[in-house]
Amino acid sequence: DETALQEHFERRVAGEERIEPRDWVPEGYRKTLVRQIAQHAHSEIIGMQPEGNWITRAPSLRRKAILLAKVQDEAGHGLYLYSAAETLGVDRSELTDKLIDQRQKYSSIFNYPTLNFADIGVIGWLVDGAAICNQVPLCRSSYGPYARAMVRICKEESFHQRQGYELLMTMMRGTPEQREMVQDATDRWWWPSLMMFGPPDGDSPNTQQSMAWRIKRHTNDELRQKFVDMTIPQAEALGVTLPDPDLRWNDERGHYDFGEPDWSELKRVISGDGPCNEQRIARRREAHEDGAWVREAAAAHAAKQAAREEV
Ligand code: ACO
């Protein structure tokens, strides 16, 4: 009966066993995973836009090839994640509809504009750096298909992060104007990057249950702190200043102290009122509609193939 199934499930989770698609799971577990994996997949797909903006204007053939490959990787990440979500009994087309009708979220970070080429480097350094911090522990998420998707995604994210840092190092060795561009991009992306980890723990309705189910392995604040600690030495090596007067090493805690992000801004951006929300969704809808003929052709081909096999 249900209680026995529930107990068995909880014992397996507590014993660090992987939950697989055919296993019995509580409805709340399934719903939470669909919510988180779909939001994660949508973030990868929407995240192609801010960088895609610079493919045609990359300053050299080398930078263009790198950026093109990176944006393609993101499409791939979205696809693995939609596939992982489909093992939970939802359909990718249904998830896409929910994204473009704004019934499902994607990461706040992708609602900020990319104003100059240094933004491409800073997205690699800070945004992909934050993504790695958040996602490496998800390789140990209790749900097998999600955890396994994360392994490959994290390897590629690490490469993206190094790519961004190398771009910024190159610009910092350039002209004073180039150094200013890097500082300006750092100033604009720092706080939104901290917000990627979600609301503070006291204001995060999902964390407790997701931790108990081992879907999430750390709280939002734990990961945010880890990101700050990891990033400060990188900023020093790069020679940029992070725009937070409260940043300082705290010997007692063994961590850096840092200022409070503007949580009202995060709420605004999540609820649809960020600088680029409308444009991001409009572009996604357009691309989906433009692709309708491809889906129709593929379906027609599959139907013909099936009919041929029946004969
Ligand atoms: N942007 C948009 N929405 C957010 C963000 C954010 N940065 N942070 C939190 N939220 C949403 C949550 O989805 C939740 O909304 P919902 O209940 O309607 O779904 C609400 O705000 C409250 O937050 P939490 O209770 O803290 O939610 P949760 O436990 O899901 O934690 C987190 C949020 C940390 C983002 C988690 O879902 C997660 O780790 N996701 C996987 C990683 C991911 O999605 N990364 C995408 C960006 S990285 C990249 O693609 C390069």
From TrEMBL:
Pfam families: PaaA_PaaC (PF05138)
Gene3D superfamilies: 1.20.1260.10
NCBIfam families the record matches: PA_CoA_Oxy1
Name this polypeptide is given: 1,2-phenylacetyl-CoA epoxidase subunit PaaA
Organism for this UniProt entry: Saccharopolyspora griseoalba
Native organism taxonomy: Bacteria, Bacillati, Actinomycetota, Actinomycetes, Pseudonocardiales
Gene, per the UniProt record: paaA
